[in-house]
Amino acid sequence: MNKLSWVLISAPLLFACSDLANKTQPPTEKMPADATHTSAMVSGTDYHSFSNPDEVRVTHLDLSLTADFNLHELIGSATLDFKRIKDDADTLIVDTRDLAIKQVTVNGEPVEYSLSEPDENLGSALSISLPKQASQVTIDYATSPNASGVQWLTPAQTQGKKHPFLFTQAQAIHARSFIPLQDSPQVRITYDAHIRTPKALRAVMSAANDPDTPMDGDYTFTMPQPIPSYLIALAIGHLDFKAMGKRTGVYAEPEILDAAAAEFEDTESMLEVTENTYGPYRWDRYDLLILPPSFPFGGMENPRLSFITPTVIAGDKSLVSLIAHELAHSWSGNTVTNATWRDLWLNEGFTTYLTYRIMEMVYGEHRFSMEAVLGYQSLQADLNTLPPKDQILAIDLRGRNPDDVFSDIPYEKGALFLRELEQKVGRANFDAFLMAYFDHFAFQSITTDTFVDYLNDTLLKQYPDKLSKARIHQWIFEPGLPEGAPVPVSDAFDKIDTARQAWLDGDISAAQINSAQWTTHEWLYFLNNMPKQLSEPQLNELDTVFHLTQSTNNEIAHSWLLIAVNNEYKPAYDRLYDYLVHIGRNKLVKPLYQALAQTPEGKAFAKKAFEEAKPGYHPLTIRVNEGFVED
Ligand code: BES
Ligand code: ZN
User: Fold this and answer.
1) Phi and psi of 76, rounded to 5°?
2) Cα-to-centroid distance, 336 and ligand 2 (Å)
3) How many domains does the chain have?
4) Contact criterion met (CB below 8 Å) for 618 and 585
5) % of the chain surpassing 70 pLDDT
């Protein structure tokens, strides 16, 4: 019934200048700002770490921390095992950010160290003098209450309202704000951890978790597979566990545990289809952790335990592609990892492609095709606003904080590139290629250039008449979309377009739209493709008939509130205020702040909401949005 085809059209390239392009960042020690535009990037060089893994490389971390919920500090030590890559290396350099370093010891003996002046984006390098035979150092330290990678929540900010909560978010460069380590994705380490918490709380980590462990305030963890530092994660809260399948379960506050387990009950099926298509799941269990609504992302693929926003618990599984996405990272990201942040698209583009495939396998082509069209529309919106240099998959992030450059480019453009490869060589052949790729590079961190070399040695050799080096180069190293790039088309939305147009033309009233059976995706498509300007009577009619201001689906509410802001539709502003104050997921709140900032009145409203929300926002959400409300 529903047909999806991919038509070949030439995509328009609109290189509008956004103020992002003009933002100059402070120079860093590694790369002066003025060099950003002239010198070539060196593949494999991590411009976002001060560490020296090419001389001395950390291999294992032993973490021992006490969570002090009064001081908002993690206090304890990190013991780092290292090996010398250069025999005569005498200094270990690790990354830190706002850490109070108390002492550094080798075999219990203090050793000399120095801490560099902090760089705004990168923090401070901690240089440790190594005695000749040493292979392990211990750093005693405490985190700052304002650590960029830690959020401490009051009981009021949780579901249960009785207990405090803590979570970390390390990607991209925030692990250094709670652990002194070589904070570069090309350094893979195993870890053990010992975490002490108040007695009523449970600690969980991106490691082996035991749901039967007694809640006694004392927890130990082991992560036996080598992972990059951005995948180290800790959460502490009043958490219960519920199994969903043999290898899958969910940790959440008891108040939302059942709802979460029901919403995400297909996780086990997702795991199975992904294994069948892309090879073994290499991480033992796959559990979810549901965070409070201030979690700044939709999800984070912390190994064995994805961190998930509660804003996707819609009651009808309509937003579960997020779970497919975080699960897919177990292959693309956690098993094969980007070596530097320039290579992020290897994580996110592959994962977005896998997400679409998983959704198609579990929920069918109709669901997949709708999500593919919505994803494509979102990509087009970014292509219309981002400067050309930020439309490149292998992006130059020198002198910038990766948090400031978040866009659909690595995600949807990356996925479209893989979709083109799939279409050219055939689905079965491309699946075989990806399975071999995950196996070949398992537990390695690789650069874009390593991927291109691999592609040249495999697919390009097998299908020389179907693929070309020039075309691949264009996809990865040039802005925009190459001419003839695949475009997802679905007839699933035809009836939505027809209904919207008939209503806009005044041929039918909103009440005459046959929307009773519409899914979330159909509502999103209906709303996202409204003209920017609607009249007051039109807005009133939509709201009266469809109760959009009251929508309990956070994505639909988001799309509607954006329309409300763009048209200054005041009846929605109480809900808007409440939404901004209670949700900290950046993707949902940032576009609203951005739209509000367009008018003085809107800005004043945004400022008020932001000030009230700020104590509950994550540092990242504060950082990314405070510019919109400044005078
Ligand atoms: N790994 C990302 C989140 C991330 C990326 C954090 C880069 C910091 C730097 C995660 O897997 C992700 O992509 N989350 C998305 C999910 C969405 C695309 C389904 C999100 O949070 O919106
Ligand atoms: Zn992702």
Assistant:
1) 165, -135
2) 13
3) 1
4) no
5) 94
Residue 543 CB less than 6 A away from ligand 1: no
Count of alpha carbons within 13 angstroms of residue 415, beta-carbon side: 23
Answer yes or no: is 559 within a domain: yes
Q: Reduced to 3 states, what is the DSSP secondary structure of residue 41?
A: coil
Q: Render pLDDT for 243-276 as a digit per residue (tens, 0 to 9).
A: 999 999 999 999 999 999 999 999 999 999 999 9
Ligand 2 (single-atom ion) residues, CB below 5 Å: 348, 351
The model's confidence at residue 6, banded by pLDDT at 50, 70 and 90, is low
Element (H, E) at 488: strand 486-490
Q: Where residue 623 sits, what CATH number does that domain have?
A: 1.25.40.320
- Domain range for 514: 491-629
Catalytic residue status for 522: no
Asked if residue 609 has a cis previous peptide bond (ω within 30° of 0), the answer is no
Mutate which of 288, 329, 348 for ligand 1 pocket (most atoms within 8 A of beta carbon): 348
**Residue 134 in tokens:** 């040493």
- Rounded-to-10 torsion of CA 265, 268, 274, 277: -120
Inside any domain, residue 586: yes
| Pairwise CA distance, residues 171 & 182, whole Å | 13
- What is the reported pLDDT for 1? 36
Residue of 454, 141, 403, 155 whose CA lies nearest to 297 = 403
Any idea which residue has 């705004």 for tokens? Answer: 120
Amino acid at 12: P
d(C-alpha 582, C-alpha 292), whole Å:
10
3-state secondary structure of 141: strand
What is the pLDDT confidence band of residue 534, given thresholds at 50, 70 and 90? very high
Q: What is the pLDDT of residues 492-526, one digit of tens each?
A: 899 999 999 999 999 999 999 999 999 999 999 99
Peptide bond into 172 cis (omega under 30): yes
At residue 47, the 3 state secondary structure works out as coil
Tell me if residue 573 is catalytic: no
Residue 116 domain-assigned (yes or no): no
Asked, for residue 455, whether it belongs to a domain, the answer is: no
**pLDDT, tens digit, for every residue of 201-218?**
999 999 999 999 999 999
